[in-house]
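User: Run a structure prediction on this.
Assistant: Running it now.
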Amino acid sequence: MAKMDDSTFKALIDDHMVDAVNYYDTEFSADRSETLDYYLGEPFGNEVEDRSQVVATEVSDTIEYIMPQLMKVFSSSDNFARFIARQPEDVKAAEQATDLVNYVINSENNGFVNIYNWFKDALLFKVGVLKVFFDEDIEVVEEEYKNLNEEELTILLDDDDVEVVSQSINEVGVVADDSDLPEDEEIDEQDVQNIVSGENQIPLRRTFDVEIKRRKNSGKTKIINVPPEEFLFSRRAVDLQTADFVAHRTTMKVGDLVNDGYDYDTVLQYSGYSEIENEMEVQQRFQDTESGAKHESKNDPTMHDCLVTEMYLRADYDGDGIPEMRRVLAIGEQNFILENDPFDHIPFCIVSPILMPHRMVGRSVAEMVKDLQLIKSTVLRQLLDNMYLTNNSRVGVVEGQVNLEDLLSARPGNIVRMRAPGMVQALNVPQIGATGFNMLEYIDQVRDQRTGFSKASLGLDPKVLQSTTAQAVQSTIQGAQLKTEMIARVFAETGCRDLAKLVLLLCQKHMMKEKTIRLRNEYVTIDPRAFDNEFDISIEVGLGNGREEEKMAMLLQIAGKQEQLIGQLGMNNPVVKPSQYVNTLSKIIEMAGFKDTSQFFNSAEQIDQILAQQEQQAASANAPMNQQMQEIELERQKIQTDIALEREKMLLELELEREKFQQQLELRREELQAELDLRAQKSALGGDISTNLPRA
């Protein structure tokens, strides 16, 4: 297959853009504009003159109820994400990756604001979008150096960011007369020999004057919020990673594009009004500022707006039969292509609060309560109109029998003149208050079931607080928070996980040197080039007040058990290390709302280092004593060995003597028995054996 030509590729991206824009216009634009009206409490358009026009705020109340809970979940700790090593040797790298990614999200970028707008867009408009990219902010400065020696010049030119503009050599001759020697020159042995030998000139010395340009790369990973109306994607997209087409369509100033290196005339040619400026959402967002109209300077062309579309699409551009991802940068409504390069990832992270299977964008919380806001507003209007009519009821009069001027005067104690009694009769208005308030309560119950937003979850419902046990109250509150917890978990496992991955990927690709960052009141050096991008990712979320209380109670129990073990077994026990105890205390402090635990305790790493130093110092100080004790122990062991050997020798000798005595005793017994046997035989024969008996 042949490589795709420019016209074919241009037609391809035009088709993608038309389809994506049509999908946005039909599926999202009107709905998002209406949602924003509901959130702002704008009139519905069905209002009747001289009747109540109050608008309920169900959408706003629900969103603003959920947002603090979500932000508490994701911002209660400095660790937005945590990387987990898959191999034991990668533990240190995983810890450094965690520190770096959280530093980039929270410190180098305004993490709280970015995440707040990200989540709020999702709750309101079905999807929140973050764009993560590396901004190569390169500054070129000119520097001049004079009278450098060869070593200094070599060090200067070894820097890859240095470009030589001009260079000159200065040859310096020094006469033998000491008075002519420069004060700053040092005389070596060869110089002295030359002077002594009558040479009138010391060997020449060379210095260098250099003008350079130094490139200072202050680039960093940037995270920005993308307005939902600027984010386009193919209608059949299931997720970002497999989407055929994703685009960011926005406007930029001509001067900003020229500053990025693009041709001024080309950019100016394609600048001007664009459709995105007339999107319903944009108009709604800026409806209080000159009806949303944008102001464009006519006298300064560099301040004109230009439509810029950054596209990521899959296409077989090189003709190898395999579609690959490409990044295309186009300007103007005609999509004039400025850049067309291969790319390896999509730089967006999206969140949607209520997932729809097999669709990239799910449902919003706002669309779940918009109908309730309309119904509630209608009921409130009816109630208010009923109260107005009750307090200012209409009357019937007999024409010509009542002074209408007196009747229309609402002054207290006013007299109404009539020609005959009964000429004025009040028209009773039925009271609908009880029914109306019951309806409002029912609407609140429906909202609670849909969103989890209730007085119970806020701890404000007196009926709940009157429960017989604290456990019942807690169970009710936890049950009401389940939906918010589900939204938090969905955000954590989708967009938040992708955000951590993207930040780490960009740090690995673009950070070419070590980076020193300030963490926990100390400076830490991190080299992202050494990271293995095969970490597991855990998004740190703490869900629900009840869960927090349970975790706090459990942590306190763990801390108590650790204290008990350390007290009983000592600091160097095999069960609990002091650093593990400090980790427990740090978690307790974080859950209490204090982010900087270093105000209260040293870190676990610092404690391990201090204990290691103390052990080393103690070992060094006790080395002579330990050697003496070893010698004493060896001498003691030798004495004990000698005593044991001597004892065994004595026991052996005693045993030998005993056996010898037993043998002698047995021999004497046998002799006596033989004598007795002999006497018995002689007696039996009648012989005199008295002479043979032993004498007493």
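The two ends are 137 Å apart (CA to CA).
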